[in-house]
Amino acid sequence: MAVYVQKKPTSIFEKVNDETWRRKFLRNVLIPWIFIAPLLIIHILVVAVPAVQGIYMSLTDWTGIGMNVNFIGLDNYHRLFFEDETFAKALGNNIAWMAFFLTVPFILALFCATQLAQVKRGGMIYRSILFIPYVLASVVTTTIWKNLLNPRQGIGAALDNLLGLEDVFGVAFLGRRESALMSIAFIDNWHFWGFLMILFLAAMQSIPPVLYDAAKIDGANRWDEFRHVTLPGIRPVMLFMYMMVAIWSFLAFDYIFLLTQGGPAGASEVIATQLYKNAFFRFQAGYGAAQGVVISIFAGFIILIFVTLRRRGWDI
Amino acid sequence: MTAIGKVSLRDTVLQRGRSKERSRLLVFNHTVLLLLTAFAVIPLLVLAFNSVKTNLEIGQNPLGPPVNVVAENFPNAWERGNFAVTMGNSVIYVVATIAAELVLGGLAAYALARKRPPGSDLLMLYFLVASTIPLWMYIVPLFVQINALKRLGVDARILLIIVYVAGNAPLTIFLLRSYMIDLPTELEDAARVDGANEFQVLTRIVLPLTKPGFLTVGLVVGLGVWNEFLLALTFIHDPNQFPVTTSFYKFVDRFDRDWSLTSAGAIIIIFPVMVLFLALQRQFIEGLAEGGIKT
Fold first, then answer.
1. Cβ of B181: how many Cβ atoms within 10 Å?
2. A148 contacts in chain B (CB < 8 Å)
3. What is the pLDDT of residues B76-107, one digit of tens each?
4. Of B90, B137, B140, nearest in space to B246 by CA
5. Which of B127, B157, B172, B193 is a plausible cystine mate for B105, CB 3.0–4.6 Å?
6. How many angstroms separate the CA atoms of A297 and B133, rounded?
7. How many C-beta atoms surround the C-beta of residue B274 within 10 A?
8. Which residues 145-174 of chain B have a CB within 8 Å of chain A?
9. Do A64 and B234 touch (CB under 8 A)?
10. What is the pLDDT of residue A216?
């Protein structure tokens, strides 16, 4: 039997030191980590662990139910890039989506923000109203626009009526292969661009007015001011949003799923809607997981581009 | 005297010239802004119009203002869309997520901003990297886990709330931490000198002073959860646990042709958001802008 010997502090100083060390450890290490732990653990369990599982799952042929899991290496990826033509189509749609969102909302938001920055009276009212679409739920926005784009009762039909035309604007924009994807992008943009505009406006308002005065003294016209004062001033926000929008373009789901489910005949299918169907309707969980990994790789690649540019001295 | 008078005269002349040009520019500004405002508002106006028309009237007049205002659409939609239940569910999702997020996020952010225990840099790096992982990377395995837990009898609503809390964790930590770092430490030190313990320092000093940060996170997270569609669609299958979004999705599917009913339902969903937005415009706009930039 071991004899428990308590080493008595030889001097009062040692005791005090011992105490303060423990208290310090408690106060500076243990308690802070106890504060951090709950959120960290939740995040690891919900995001990190399933993300790693997702990588493993993408290397199997698992259907999503049952115990029959076979490791098939990179077969899912091979199938994605070399066999599945619908995936190529979906990827192309994602890129078209990105091309739309990197231009249309940015031009609209930039233009509107420059106008709004010059208005003093009523600026707040415009700002609030233009922001409203952004706070609406996707289910609501899509319902509104589904009705508005109805070929017989929507805006198109009204426009045809007004101009005495027939079936020029009053067509099923969402139901036709050539217009479905861009119509969805238009609707999503109706919801989104106000947000971008607010970001640009905030950045413009934080540009020191002295710079504009200096430009005026140098004889700059409004275009010069815009090019040499406004644009450089909002550049960090713009480039950051370029990155975010490029990433979001590969994640797009809600609006497409709600408006067309990827149809007609896959015309508006993107990777995310395909993934959703593969994983949850078609019993191809492994294949769906591989698509998730591919989306993440694309997103990571975009981040990498921006990080590299930043390293090269761009100020982003 | 005369010199000053001359200068000021020249100034006013200059100003008059400038103000003429200015007003012409302002006309252009307002024209553009009014057009864009119309683009934002008209779809919502049509929705509001249709929510108080009968279907018969929508057939003849699908876009214009209503001739006869009927209010029955709202109780009808409320009843048939099971809104009494689903609105309650959404309120639960929103309130529980915000509460958990603010308590857990506040604790973590405080520890990271003030105590910086060993390993906090690594932790921030973890959250930074993890915040870039798209949902699509982990939704399939997460679905499997959640189904397994549901089979064990865990309430799906609790699981969804946990998923929401986790998804918003990086944003919450970044925002709250930056708010707390900006706070001068002298106040906290003074409280400690007066004998306050760590918990008291947090609740009496730090929390009241970082209220705007908590309000921002609360609004961003709350709006996100109220409008959230994909996760609710994936993880909640019992209609009595649906939030308004997925329940409205099924509702629109079922009453596809009944525009007056679906329009009224849409108004019901956006009503609480609009009221809150109009009451807290500045916080909403600045909060969402901040949340968008910092994540």
1. 12
2. 43, 46
3. 999 998 999 999 999 999 999 999 999 999 99
4. B90
5. B172
6. 9
7. 15
8. 145, 162-163, 165-167, 169-170, 172-173
9. no
10. 86
Q: Which has the closest alpha carbon to B175: B85, B102, B114?
A: B102
* Helices (H), ranges, chain A: 12-25, 31-43, 49-57, 75-78, 85-118, 123-131, 138-148, 155-163, 180-205, 209-217, 222-225, 231-251, 254-259, 271-280, 285-311
| Position B51, amino acid | S
Quick check: B135 and A128 CB within 8 A?
no
CA pair distance B273, B281, nearest whole angstrom: 11
Q: pLDDT value at position B285?
A: 87
A87, B73, B85, B243, B245 from B264: Cα distances, Å: 38, 6, 17, 17, 14
The first and second tokens of residue B75, run together, are 């109780």
Tell me the DSSP string of A237-281.
Answer: HHHHHHHHHHHHHHH--HHHHHHTTT-STTTT--HHHHHHHHHHT
Tell me if the bond preceding B272 is cis, omega within 30° of 0: no
A residues 90-109 lying closer than 8 A (beta carbon) to B: 108
- Tokens (6 digits) for A189: 């943009």
Beta-carbon separation of A135 and B142 below 8 A: no
In Å, how far is A309's CA from the nearest CA of chain B? 18
The gap from C-alpha A113 to its chain's centroid, in whole angstroms, comes to 21
Chain B nearest CA to A291, separation (Å) = 8
Closest residue in A to B101 (Cα) is A39
Instruction: Quote the ipTM score.
Output: 0.89
Name the token pair of B238. Answer: 């019992």
Whether the CB of A291 is below 8 Å from some CB of chain B: the reply is yes
**Neighbouring C-beta atoms of residue B212, cutoff 10 Å:** 12
pLDDT class of A67 with cuts at 50, 70, 90 = confident
Measured between beta carbons, the chain A residues lying within 8 angstroms of B43 are 133, 144-145, 148, 190
Per the CB < 8 A criterion, the answer to whether B193 and B61 are in contact is no
| Tally of CA atoms within 13 A in the half-sphere of A9 that contains its CB | 9
Residue of B138, B151, B217, B277 to mutate, interface with A, max A Cβ within 10 Å: B138
Is residue B71 less than 8 Å (CB to CB) from chain A? no
Please say whether the dihedral angle defined by the alpha carbons of residues B102, B105, B107 and B110, taken in this order, is positive or negative. negative
Report pLDDT digits (tens) over A306-315.
Answer: 889 888 876 6
Mean per-residue pLDDT over chain B, rounded: 87
* Non-local CB neighbours of B98 within 8 Å, separated by 6+ positions: B218, B221, B222, B225
Q: For A108-163, write each residue's pLDDT tens digit.
A: 999 999 999 888 888 889 999 999 999 999 999 999 999 999 888 888 888 888 88
∠ CA B83-B85-B89 to the nearest 5 degrees? 105
- For B242, list phi and psi in degrees, rounded to 5: -60, 140
